[in-house]
């Protein structure tokens, strides 16, 4: 499934292993012990690989043990399987009004059941066993804001959904649909975009719904190791008040929804599975709020936007946040919602941006096809690409080397410190675990100068090492070294001395005081 290129020398790059304690038992205690040991060896950050499970007619069994072992060898810790739930027939039918090859959105869930077409519960459990054996945890989607428009829950529990009620909100006919039961139900939505017409909006002021969704999360936690919570901020209490209950009195709303759902839900699940991971897809500067409610990781969209805009100031601002915030961020330069990295960045900027997020102390997400330079962004309803794009083998080899180098313990566990290389548009930071000092230096903003031939100030690295004499710097990707001599107490280098060519926009350095 994942074409391979020759791997790098694992003896020089890949110096640790993930110890699998138990893969046969489905008991939570065994999984918790296994995951705890694994994360202890690799640090608290996660390297997540996102797979569109339905792509090209693939099923759970088509994701083989060798595929999973290869991902683990590259330094990945987790597999995010997007699209594992049974697809709503109503959502599938509506999607075909847009395009005949659409097969329904995996985010229009009728009920939480593993897809029959993909192999059902048994097929999924077998895949999880293979992933665990390879040393990978498994993450799936939890769609908190809405269900499919033909969810059987509407018949059984109409009170779980936002229904027409002019007393508490303004209404437009385009925002609602008439269900076969006679109920007038709101489509699911993000307020900044048109409604999602294949979904029905859940009402979190319903105590019964909150209890039901907690039970669904507990059930999911029996089969997986974490959830990526789709549009998690849409379930926050302030948003629900503003969007769905603006005319209700404070007393009425407080009575209907006295507390945040996420705080209650995460506490309930972690009481049974302390190791279970909650990842929030989050925007609108709601990341800290969601972390305060118990999320382990939140999307880092602002950093992504800064990289896309080639805005070094915005990137530097995000990296200057407190360390706990950086550590709790899930960074990416591509996922299934964003344009393909290869269509946004040049090859040089693609690799420089990927190196940056992989070298940070936070977690990183790599999307299937990203390392191969895929350009076509697939709507979630489409399972077969329109174009046959051959993989970019050079880009893939560069990514594989980059993934393995940054999987080293210093990048996983080392202290984090920004420094000023005194070059326009360059971002620089160090990682230090007491044994090694490594650094990322990258040209984020477009500039008039050549990145490899402009003197970089690396005095901050020398100070961390306590160097007063020569400083040896080695490029971790080319294995070339150079020695910088202090001049008036400052250390400067040009990266072409390390074999960095004119096309390259970043460098990963190791520094040693001689």
Give a verbal description of the structure:
- With 514 residues, the protein is an alpha/beta fold.
- 33% of the residues lie in helices and 17% in strands.
- It is built from 19 helices and 20 strands.
- The longest helix has 15 residues, at 28-42.
- It is elongated.
What is the tally of beta strands?
20
The percentage of residues in β strands lies in: 15-25%
Quick one: biggest sheet?
8 strands, parallel, barrel
Oligomer: single chain
Strand adjacency order, main sheet: 1-2-3-8-9-10-11-12
Helix content bin: 25-40%
Shape call: elongated
Low-confidence stretches: 1-37
Distance between the termini: 47 Å
Structural class: alpha/beta
Helix count equals 19
Which radius of gyration do the C-alpha atoms yield?
24 Å
Query: Please, what is the average pLDDT?
Result: 91
Give the SSE layout.
Blueprint: H1 10-13, H2 28-42, E1 47-52, H3 65-73, E2 78-82, H4 89-98, H5 120-134, E3 137-143, E4 146-148, H6 153-156, E5 176-178, E6 184-186, E7 199-201, H7 207-221, E8 226-230, H8 237-244, H9 250-256, H10 261-272, E9 277-280, H11 287-292, E10 297-299, H12 301-308, H13 312-319, H14 323-327, E11 329-331, H15 341-344, H16 347-359, E12 363-367, H17 393-406, H18 409-413, E13 415-418, E14 426-432, E15 437-443, E16 456-457, H19 459-465, E17 471-475, E18 481-484, E19 492-493, E20 506-513
Parallel strand pairs: 1-2, 1-12, 2-3, 3-8, 8-9, 9-10, 10-11, 11-12
Antiparallel strand pairs: 4-7, 5-6, 13-14, 14-15, 15-20, 16-19, 17-18, 17-20
